[in-house]
Amino acid sequence: MPRAFTPKVVTANALIEGDVVYLTAEDRWTRDLARAELLTDEADAELRLLQAQARGAEVVGAYLADMRPGAQGPEPAHFREAFRATGPSNRFHGKQSEGLSRA
User: Disordered: where is this region (predicted)?
Assistant: First the structure.
């Protein structure tokens, strides 16, 4: 029996900066997971992925990531995506430095 489709977002890495990005319903790339388009239909998700993969001048490595609906938008369903959403872990910069002081 085939597994039920779980909600997904299209994610990739920005070509120039390397940041994790997500595709929005407005067909733009965002670094904010809460603004990503949550895809609940399998055929629609596959089509959005193909469209994203065709944008090789903007992103690399586009794929569908499992998510679940949350109060603020899509939330990661797996550790890997939660880790990617927080940004690099080797020093405080980018997403990890927001709201933190360097004491």
Answer: 70-103
